[in-house]
Amino acid sequence: MAVTETMKRRVPLDDVLDELSPKENLSARDEALARAIAIVTFRRLGTLGRALNERLNREPKDERLLHLLATGAAQILFLDVPDHAAVDSAVRLAQEDAKLSHAGGFINAVLRRVARERDIILARQEPWLDTPTWLEERWVAQYGEELAARIAEAHRAMASVDLSVKEDAASWAERVNGVLLPTGSIRLQERTAIRDLPGFDEGAWWVQDAAAALPARLLQARPGERIADLCAAPGGKTAQLAATGADVLAVDRSAKRLKRLEDNLARLHLKAETRAIDAEKLDEAPFDAILLDAPCSATGTIRRHPDVAWTKSEEDIRKLSGLQTRLLDKAAGLLKPGGRLVYCTCSLEAEEGERQAAGFLARHPDFARRPITADEIGGLTECLTPEGDLRTLPCHLVSPGHERGGLDGFFVARFAKAS
After folding, report:
1. Are the CB atoms for 72 and 107 separated by under 8 Å?
2. Catalytically active residues, by annotation
3. In whole angstroms, what is the distance from residue 195 CA to residue 262 CA?
4. pLDDT in tens, 327-372
5. CA 28 centroid distance within chain
6. Model pTM?
């Protein structure tokens, strides 16, 4: 089961699903449903856990049984799946597992009770119910109670689907039935198969969260400049840089992820040199500009990847912040005098954002911050820090009445090296 494997191995849900799908031999429709069930289970894990605990005499010793109950309850409470189908599916899955085959009647009784008491369960929606305590404490300390609660609430909604286009964004917004955001991205208004949209086959656009599209724009790449995109996969930012006419080197330590980047560039008819190497070991002549999208805890992507909240820890943040420091120092040495550096992470944590920027400037007196201005980000003044950095939050750019609003949580700082 995907939920069990993700929790046990502490790896991304997407990786687990990619591994399991070929083994299960699912149709495209069933694979999409399985993915939706796993995602909503993680998104509402606190709600599901409480609902089940209040309806059990004791918590099952086998975590697979608990996760099977959670995925069944997720379908009943949050997905457009008939109650009887969700119950029958859970019972059938148990019967196919030798260690759970005895639990069919128990699963049937618990899930039918969840269905009967649906309204009671959904009426109780405390702000922090679906957020682990360690993240709640961190966000309240960093953002204050009110803003932190808005972040937690935003994580309960489905993530938006945004597109970046090579050119003529207004025209493409109309063609794909999207809304042109003030930042320049297109936000789709309806759920649809991405490959079926106009422009996919001809490579006119690519999927990229509106916040994730900002760092490359803020680098202000120019035609002919030599630019490094460090930790580049899956490649949305590489595509943005290549579309400017810059000479781009995309670096990533994962050859598999880099192959996906190359495939994306081929569909988009864009060119960039790629190199599968640890960015810390990169030995190159100095660049005009560098984009460093550093590996991080990814707590800014919980809207899109809710498993992050339950598989990451404070120890991960500590280890990754050390890597970020080393990568920043490496990038500093790869820049020409007068060169530009944009550092970003899709994290909500200060150790991976604000504190990294302050530490970098303290270690490198030959660099100065180049403040980001509101006009560069579509006038979203609430996303600017007092220091002139960018801090987007999941509760930013939320459209009233639209279930797919918000932004991924990003931190972005821009620096210039002395000439």
Report:
1. yes
2. 346
3. 18
4. 999 999 999 999 999 999 999 999 999 999 999 999 999 999 999 9
5. 23
6. 0.95
